[in-house]
Design goal:
Number of strands: 2
Number of helices: 14
Structural class: mainly alpha
Shape: elongated
Order of helices and strands: HEEHHHHHHHHHHHHH
Largest sheet: 2 strands, antiparallel
Strand order of the largest sheet: 1-2
Distance between the termini: 89 Å
Helix content: 55-70%
Strand content: under 5%
């Protein structure tokens, strides 16, 4: 039976072209009406550019640093800028800074830990728990003075090496911040020439902190803040002890409270980081006993010191540059020096 003409037309007629939703039937090729214009100030810029809004009329802020560090702020810095810059500088100069710190910190902490090998009679914590008589034996009539001697040796040596590490770190970081690079050898030689001044400033500042602590519980914060940038001043301006401390006070005084906040925050951060790194080794040494665990105790003292001691010096050096930028236009001096050399301003 043959299909009717209507049925053949239905089967063989081509399908109608696709039309977008809302398109009136029978008018292919014409799009929907354009939407009404939005409020002024919205939408992409004229010309179909990729950006939104109007370009900033202000020039970009000047930058310091180098390809190793990445761009560092050569303008007044917030705490986040100081923290980020400190980590960048530490990462860029990690090998040099750790080498300088390790030369002094490793022997000092090894000797101090070795003297503590008789702590608790050299027995481990679990041994003492199982046999309390070992503790009575360790605290007999002639207790060992080794732990006390080790603590005194470690404290005295730390007082001597901390200013040296801080001075060398400041010299390395200052060179890196200004776009250069300084090796461990030149930094240590430059620090050795200024070591007596560094030591004198360190002891005078320590005495003032002690006096402030005696007079008031938080009195040590005042000298800590006023003399926060003494080490960079000694290394970069090469002044004597008294002029160094006076120069630090002049730089810090207009920004006393922000600098105090930076000092307290950096101290707390270094303390927390140091405890996180040292605690596992200290617990392990206590568990197995200091007779052989003194090696673990030494590692637990060396590892955090290699990072926290230079970190505080790096942050103090950046605070020094920040204060000079705010108070003395150090950024303009650096831009003018680059232009005088024919270099393009960054």
């Amino acid at each position: 039976m043959r299909a009717s003409a209507d049925e053949r037309n239905v089967v063989t007629s081509p399908p109608s072209p696709w039309e977008p939703p809302g398109q009136p039937s029978g008018q292919p090729g014409t799009g929907p009406p354009a939407p009404p214009p939005g409020p002024a100030g919205w939408g992409p810029p004229p010309g179909g550019g990729p950006g939104w809004g109007v370009p900033s009329p202000y020039p970009p802020l000047p930058k310091a640093g180098s390809a190793r560090t990445g761009p560092l702020p050569l303008h007044p810095m917030m705490f986040s800028d100081l923290l980020d810059g400190s980590f960048r500088l530490l990462k860029a100069n990690l090998g040099t800074i750790v080498l300088v710190a390790a030369v002094f910190l490793i022997p000092v902490n090894l000797v101090a830990a070795f003297f503590q090998r008789d702590l608790l009679g050299g027995h481990g914590f679990f041994d003492l728990m199982q046999d309390p008589s070992l503790l009575e034996e360790a605290a007999g009539p002639g207790p060992s003075t080794g732990p006390l001697v080790g603590s005194l040796v470690g404290a005295f040596a730390t007082v001597l090496v901390t200013p040296f590490i801080g001075g060398a770190t400041s010299r390395i970081v200052a060179a890196s911040y200004l776009g250069g690079e300084l090796g461990a050898g030149p930094a240590m030689r430059a620090t050795w020439r200024r070591f007596l001044v560094l030591l004198a400033v360190f002891f005078m500042t320590l005495l003032l902190k002690g006096a402030g602590l005696v007079l008031c519980l938080v009195g040590a914060l005042v000298p800590m803040t006023l003399f926060l940038v003494t080490t960079p001043v000694v290394m970069l301006e090469e002044t004597g002890p008294i002029l160094t401390m006076a120069r630090s006070v002049v730089l810090v005084r207009p920004r006393f409270w922000p600098v105090m906040g930076v000092g307290v925050a950096s101290g707390l951060l270094a303390s927390v980081l140091g405890n996180i790194l040292a605690t596992p080794f200290s617990l392990a040494a206590l568990a197995i006993g200091y007779r052989w665990g003194w090696i673990l105790a030494a590692i637990g003292a060396i590892l955090p010191a290699l990072l926290t001691t230079p970190f505080v010096s790096i942050l103090a050096t950046l605070v020094y540059f920040d204060l000079r930028i705010r108070n003395e236009g150090f950024d303009l001096q650096m831009i003018a020096a680059e232009l005088a050399r024919g270099a393009p301003a960054r």
